[in-house]
């Protein structure tokens, strides 16, 4: 309920303006956000595509270098001089030395013509060593055959290493990428050799280091075993100050891989070469949109301009729509204040104009009906009050006369006089002079006469006390309101008791309201009977009212009919403990002419 009220406004102008504003703001924000996201996604997509093209070019170039090395290896593999030298029993003989010179000359020509090749070396199982350099520059045979490039070139497979420092020549430690392949002699068993071709690492370094992928983006290469071939921060990687998700890269195929790094997203574009290397381009989406700030400012600026214009239009439109409604509301407020002569002066042809015309017709009919109702209510009110007021229980009158006769027969003349006088005063008070209201003192005097008669009828059955504050004596109240309450206490509360009962009437002023309580210590009532005393639909002819004598319903109905629904009777009762009836009426200090 509170959430609903939060969105309710007292003014329809405000409601329409807020509704339009919320709709416009929501639409503007959604469109602006979608526009920015689509632009950003488009730029990101183009940048990722550009990255893929770059790493494809890098991969193609590297594959070309490796293919060239394989072509050279294949050419040398089919070289007859090398095969002849490999099968020689004594490679150091004069014939072997002439073959070495010829082969070395061929290797020197290849290396000198290719700046991407660092060195070419052939080592045979017969102890032969052939290089494009002088033999004195090479390390010893045992040192050469102990290196990885030699031991891993098995089963005629081509082994391509990651970037490493080569230890082939004395006092030279170049960074190279090595490709080694096993050669076999004509017998294919005993006579073998390994061909080594070193690719200059600077070729790959220059190729990859010049690629710019934003301020932080870069390219790196990893082989199929997870070793880094190239990385722009390779020294930092080796010191474990930085790491790359190698396992995720090896497990992933070609395409994009999105990862988190220090709460920043990065996109890895992966391309696998035909020999197993993976070339990875690393880009950061937050840097791909180079004019991100400009796009944001432009979106905010134009969104704000459109928003201000739309809000202005919504305010003007809401004012135009709500103006006739406010005018009709002002007319209704005058009707609330009792002015039924007002007319709504709205001539427009839409639904509001139709509503105004219906409002005018309604006022005419209401005014006619009010005149009729006022007249009928006045007649009904007067006749009903008089009818209720004049009711008297005939059984009470019969029983009282029988008691007087019985006392006369027993020569109790004093009691006869007292009871007859009290009954006479009661009858005269009931008939009255046509006045609806009497003073509180007169009502209490009538109540005392009634209690006198009843106490003489029910000898020693109950006692009573009347306590009324002096300031109430001059106040006005309806005639015969307390007698039915006391009668109800006697007949239904005390009469069937074995012990003697007590009735107490207390009158006092509470916050400007007359409050009179009638309490007894009789049998009391349960909750069901208590709730039915003033139940809806009960009237003076109902079973409950007949059972209650004149009935408390008559009293309650008369009070509300005369004084309004804010006044009337209330009950408190507990079985075997008694009942208390509280009567509340407004206080009127006008003096009442006593009878």
TrEMBL record:
Location of this chain's protein in the cell: Cell membrane
Recorded topology in the membrane: Multi-pass membrane protein
InterPro entries on file: Bact_2-comp_sensor_kinase, dCache_1, HAMP_dom, HATPase_C_sf, HATPase_dom, Sig_transdc_His_kin-like_C, Sig_transdc_His_kin_internal
Keyword Repeat: no
Residues passing through the membrane, by range: 12-33, 300-322
E.C. numbers: 2.7.13.3
Entry keyword set: Cell membrane, Kinase, Membrane, Phosphoprotein, Transferase, Transmembrane, Transmembrane helix, Two-component regulatory system
Reaction(s) catalysed (UniProt annotation): ATP + protein L-histidine = ADP + protein N-phospho-L-histidine
CDD domains membership: HAMP, PDC2_MCP_like
UniProt domain HAMP: residue ranges: 319-371
The protein's name: histidine kinase
Species: Paenibacillus anseongense
Source species taxonomy: Bacteria, Bacillati, Bacillota, Bacilli, Bacillales
